[in-house]
Every structure is written in structure tokens, then in C-alpha cells.
Amino acid sequence: MPSPTCYLLLNPAASRSHHRPRLPLPAAAPPRRRVHVSCDARRTGGGGGGGGVKREAIPAGTGKAKKQVVFFDAAPPVSQRGGGGGGEGEGEGEGKVARRKKENAALGLVRRLTKRTLSLLSNLPLAISEMFAIAALMALGTVIDQGEAPSYYFEKFPEDNPVFGFITWRWILTPGFDHMFSSPVFLGLLALLAASLMACTYTTQIPIVKVARRWSFMHSAGSIRKQEFAESLPRASIQDLGVILMGYGYEVFTKGPSLYAFKGLAGRFAPIGVHIAMIFIMAGATLSATGSFKGSVDVPQGLNFVIGDVMKPKGVLSFAPDVFNTEVHVNRFYMEYYDSGEVSQFYSDLSLFDLDGKEVMRKTIKVNDPLRYGGVTIYQTDWGFSALQVKKNGEGPFNLAMAPLKLNGDKKLFGTLLPLENSGSSNVKGISMLARDLQSIVLYDQEGKFVGVRRPSSKLPIEIDGNEIVIEDAIGSTGLDLKTDPGIPIVYAGFGALMLTTCISYLSHSQIWALQDGSTVVIGGKTNRAKLEFSEEMNRLLDKVPELISVNEKKIDSKQSAT
């Protein structure tokens, strides 16, 4: 191969290119001539001259590669774009460099902003503040009645008489606290807390797990003695120590005279699982607040309704499923009573029919025992008095609508009027009937005087103002709440994962290092939890080392005596 000196001597243009700049060249290719040059090869021979250097020319016919040096009368032409000269090419190159610098600067800015944002979001005091703010809003949502009409808040929180001197309806309706758990403030705090959890996982928990999974051997006795627990074991070996550590549930690795062991690595993964579980819970709560339907209806016994007619969307992610076309029929409504006469439980016998009129499900529901079908849950929440069937002088029965009467407290009272013909009076008069439940009816005459009490099931007549009245039946109405909540399975899964990962996080991640230093083993270790238990475990472990050494020595002695 030609030496560098040979190349520069034969190519003056190459030697001058280090001292002056290249000039623009014409577009046409210059003439060239091809010259074959053979350079001497330096060999160290063993012939005459006492091992001197002998230069020989490499013959052209040999099998070795032959180097060619091509001379041009001028430098080869530069590739041109668009007919421009070299100046344009240099300008384009400078433009590319400038653009590349701008791209690098923008990329560096994005990286710095990302790092600063992650550092801010992963701040522990910030995350704690977010959780306290969410807890405060949840508590406020239990104090303020949710989902009421605006007129309710105008009346309860008037501007002329603020609660606590400053809380008016504006403080509730403006930020959306009348529907707290779907308000922008509450959902924004949930999103901020989820971002903090993800940032903490990315910047803190994942690097910790990566470090914990690494097999890190220590090759210095001084480094091992700096651990939380350190001890020296004379007349021991790391092989014997490894056997004992495996008996205590450690994963043991050896490399030459070094040993590394650990256990409880799942405890390092648990905080990541806790964060993911909390994100699932918040995601499910958000989906419940923005993607569910809710409705309520009072249906008299014997009537029916369509599910979609009573359901109202609660958010932008609420999409009506096909099950909303299902028809619900109230077959029967009845109640049970305590011995004191108070209502103890009420029941609704419901049937569900599809679009073809086929019954797809039937169930009797009660309080705390709802009906679930196709993602829709029907709860038994209330009851009412729909109508009273009455016979008058053998005529009828007439269905008299029962109206709820307002009373102080939670007691219910219903009433109706059976009008009597009285052409001589401009005022309508009749027999008044009052009821607190479906089991007894109190009757009053035209003057408002008490006449008697009758049970609908007795069918006993009663004489009032010359009229024979018979109470045939009391028709009740069932109060139902209907709801679809797609976020419930996610919330339940999140809480289940949270309980599991919280328990796993209490597992201690323990690490042990050992080094064989002659006939002595230097051992040290640390743990992230349960410091006292780890120290006691290490002491028990070290107590077994002399026993194992004694057993090994006895085995060696027996083998030697046998030989």
C-alpha cells in the first residue's frame, strides 16, 4: 500500500489543499490522465547486509492488490443543484446548520420544561394538598343538597340572609357545587392528582425498582462494613452463607469471592401498584360523573313505563344503550308493618319486556335489594298512595285519587274527598278520607266530624250522612330510582387493587452483601422497613453459620479418616 509520503509527492493538489481554499470549479469535467504508480514495500530480510532494509518493486503480475493513483489537471467538479455555483451550495449548507441548531435548541427547551413540570408535579407536599382539597370538596358535597332545582338554592341560601354571613346561592351555583362530583373544580383536582401520581411513578418509583432489580456486587470489605448491619465471620465461606440465606427465603447470587442476596422485591413494586390503583379509582369516578344516566319515577300498581323515558344524562360521555327501550310493568306493590303500625319494608313486583313484548326478567325488589339488567339498576326508594277504590250506596267502585298532604317532619299523610250532591249549597261538600299508609282509612262527614276507621281488606260498610260507604281497595304507588353507572366496575377494581398493593407494600425489601476475605467472610445488609426485625433475623442467621461450619468440618474429618 502506498505510504502517505508517496501519495503527497504524487498528488500535489492534495498537499496544497491544506494551505489554501478550494476555488469554484466549472461545470464541465476536465480531461484526466491515468498513471499507474508502484511504491516500494519495506521488508526486513534475513539476507546479506546484516539484516538491512531492502527495497523492491512490486511486480504487476503478482496476485497482490495493485494501487492506482489518478491525476487530474484540475480538481473534480462539485455537484451542482439548479445550475447554481458553489456559493449557493455553501449557503444551503449554512442554512441546514442553522435549522439544525434551532431544532436542537427547541428540543432542549422542551426537555427542560418537561423535566421542570415533572419535578413540580411529583412534589409530595403538592400531592398531599390536592388530596386534602378533594377530601374537603367531598365533605362539602355531603353537606350541600345535590341535584336540586335552582329555586331550592335561591330559597335556602338567599342573598339578603347569607349562611354564616357570606354564603349565598351564588357560591353554590356558580362553581357547580349543586352537582359537586361532576363540577369542573372537582374533576380538575382529580386530574391534577392523577398527573402528580404518574409523575411520581415515573421520576421516583420506577428508578427505585430498576436499582433494586440490579445485581450489585461489592468488592470492598470497607463498603460492606458501612451498611446498616455488618459483621465478620471467621472460618466461614460464602458458599455456606449462601445455603443459609436460601433457607431464609433469599435469592442468592455469587460472583467470584462476592455474594449478593435479596428478598421482598415485591415491596418495591407495590407503591407503583398503589398509584395505578388510585388512578383507576379516580378514572372510574370521573366516568361515573360524566358518563352515567339517572332517573326517578312514581308508578301506581298495574301501570308500566319505558326506561328511556325517565332517564336523564349526567355528562358529556353519557350514551344511551339499547336497554333503554325496555318496558317495566309494576305487577304488584305491597308493604310490611311493625307491630306498632309503622312501615317496616315495601316491595315491588316488576316485570321487564323487550320490544317484541317478551318478558325478559321478573323480580320482586325491596330496599337494598335492587334489580339489575343490561347495565341498568332499579332501586326501591319510596312509596306513595295512588288511589282509593270506594263504593257508594252499592254503586262503583270509584277510583278517588289520593293527594299527599304536607306535614312537619317525615311523616306521610294522604287525603281525598268523596263529593256528595247538595244543590242548595254553593260549596262542594263531601266525605273526607285520610290515610297514613295502606292499611287503615280514617273517615269524616261533611261537617268534618270523625265517623270511623275502616281497613280496605275488611270490606265493612260504614254509614255517613245517609250514605253507605265501602272501602274496596287501597292502591299504592312505588317510588323507583333508575341508574346506569359505567364507572362502578373500574372503581371496584381500583379499590381491590389498592387493598392488595397496600398490603404488599408492607413487605420489607432486604439486601445482603458478603465478601470472602481469606478465611473470613465480611457480611453486611440493609432493609427499607422493619429495621428491628431485620437485625434479629441477621443475628439468627449468623448463629447458624458456626453450626454449618462444624458440620462441614466433621464431614471432612470423616472423609480423611476413611481414606
From TrEMBL:
Transmembrane segments: 120-144, 185-204, 265-287
GO biological process, one term: cytochrome complex assembly
Entry keyword annotation includes Cytoplasm: no
Domain ResB-like: 126-390, 439-538
Alphabetical UniProt keywords: Cytochrome c-type biogenesis, Membrane, Transmembrane, Transmembrane helix
Subcellular location: Membrane
PANTHER family for the chain: CYTOCHROME C BIOGENESIS PROTEIN CCS1, CHLOROPLASTIC
Stated name of the protein: ResB-like domain-containing protein
Organism for this UniProt entry: Oryza glaberrima (African rice)
Gene: LOC127768998
